[in-house]
Amino acid sequence: MTFRRVANPDRPLRVVQVGAGGMGQAWLRNVAENPDVELVGIVDLSPAAAEAGAAVAGDPAIPTSTDLGELLSRVEADAILDITVPVAHHPVTTDALFRGLPVLGEKPAAQTVAEALSLAAAAEVTGELFMVSQSRRYNDQLVALKQQAGQLGDVGLVTTEFAKAPHFGGFREQMDNVLLLDMAIHPFDSVRYLLDREPLSVYCESFNPSWSWYRGDAAATAVFEFTGGARYVYTGSWCAPGHETSWNGSWRVSGAAGTALWSGDDAPTIDVPDGPAAEAGAFESVGSDITGSLASFVRALRTGETPDGEVHGNVMSLAMVEAAIESKDAGRRILLDDVLERALAEALAAEARDDVRDRLANWGSVRRALGEVRQAV
Ligand SMILES: NC(=O)c1ccc[n+]([C@@H]2O[C@H](COP(=O)([O-])OP(=O)(O)OC[C@H]3O[C@@H](n4cnc5c(N)ncnc54)[C@H](O)[C@@H]3O)[C@@H](O)[C@H]2O)c1
User: Fold this and answer.
1) Structural domain range at position 127
2) What does DSSP assign to residue 278?
3) Whether 121 and 219 share a structural domain
């Protein structure tokens, strides 16, 4: 999608951050460390959170408010960071886009695929960039793994094993489908990047081990079919003490000519039995985690180059989560196309804005609208 550039390299990008909770504080530190960005205000429904955020940002006098419109009547901004809870992503980001401001928002794009489609259409109507910060994409080891995958011939199977045993307390221990909703979107997004292909279907089972300290299912196994026939198998547990994997999980990429392995923490390794693998090519660092996504957002606004995480390209990662949950509820294989088409119908029925609804109604196929050009099905 083409979007309006905010191209003034002579001064930093002026941002207002909405949401200053746990992750919001990490973002405020991230912004403070990036000379290309200047924080001009903080919005949070909780004045105490906004004030605590101002202290974390190192400027207790920074303007704060409980309302974005009110704050924008006092400060000039070039862009918005939406670091609110998922239920607020749709209203906050829609509001910002229609105020003529591009948005960098925390994952997930929205609470549901239907809301994410509405945001993609809102970005089209306004011509503003909406980028989702899918932070685990910004990892040079993952880029190196993708390079190695390119040397394996046809890739047929990718697996991720995830095993952690954190005691978070709070909302995660109470939510439904905690592993699939809160964590699995990261590897689901990463495998789309790794394969440069899109998912077609999924069969998933999830369950809660007898010793789990979570209310919702803390363990799951999902088998996805991708375009070209490759399979992706994800097995994860959030109540798996002992021999824990990294936070990225442990990856195996199996191709016709060999295999690549990635622990998620160390440089990936490649084994091509019938001939040496080519030397890894040099590539520009993508940065790390939210540092990388913020740099990518600034670069996109200055150059017009579509960033990883632009909402149209990100929706399918959320659709993988929704499809996996639908599969485990229904006890059968689910087609991603069915999830997308149902989400479009839901988005049309729920849309409050005529201009966004008209745009959605003109989409026809959701896959085409999302600009899926990677691999023909
Ligand atoms: N990338 C990662 O690794 C990672 C890690 C943790 C959280 N997250 C994501 O970051 C986001 C925020 O999570 P968190 O842990 O900081 O949540 P949190 O509950 O700690 O903080 C959210 C803040 O947003 C504020 N808020 C909610 N609705 C608002 C609205 N409409 N307007 C203004 N402020 C509003 C709340 O008052 C709260 O201060 C979530 O989308 C979460 O999924 C990502």
Assistant:
1) 13-136+291-311
2) P
3) no
Work out how many domains the chain is built from and give that number: 2
Same structural domain, 192 and 170: yes
Domain shared by 58 and 176, yes or no:
no
Is any ligand 1 atom within 6 A of the Cβ of residue 45?
yes
Q: Which among 16, 286, 291, 274 is positioned nearest to 147, based on CA atoms?
A: 286
pTM for the whole structure: 0.95
Within a domain: 191: yes
Q: What is the mean pLDDT of the chain?
A: 95
Q: Is 233 in the pocket of ligand 1 (CB under 6 A)?
A: no
On whether residue 153 sits in a domain, the answer given is yes
Q: Mean pLDDT for each 10-residue chunk of the chain (377 residues)?
A: 85 97 97 97 98 96 98 98 96 98 97 97 98 95 96 97 94 90 95 96 97 97 97 98 98 97 97 79 90 97 94 97 98 98 98 98 93 46
Report the first-to-last Cα separation within the chain, whole angstroms: 21
Looking at residue 100, its amino acid is G
With a 6 Å cutoff on the Cβ, whether 156 touches ligand 1 is no
Mark 228-253 as b/e (b = at least 16 C-beta within 10 Å). bebebebbbbbbbeeeebbebbbbeb
Distance CA 199, CA 210 (A): 32
- Per DSSP, the residues of 244-263 read ---TT-EEEEEESS-EEEE-
CA-closest residue to ligand 1 atom 18 = 21
CATH of the domain at 164: 3.30.360.10
Taking the CA atoms of 179, 122, 9 and 14 in sequence, report the sign of the dihedral they define.
Answer: negative
Residue 188 and residue 234 in contact, taking contact as beta carbons nearer than 8 Å: yes
CATH of the domain at 132: 3.40.50.720
169 and 264 in a common domain: yes
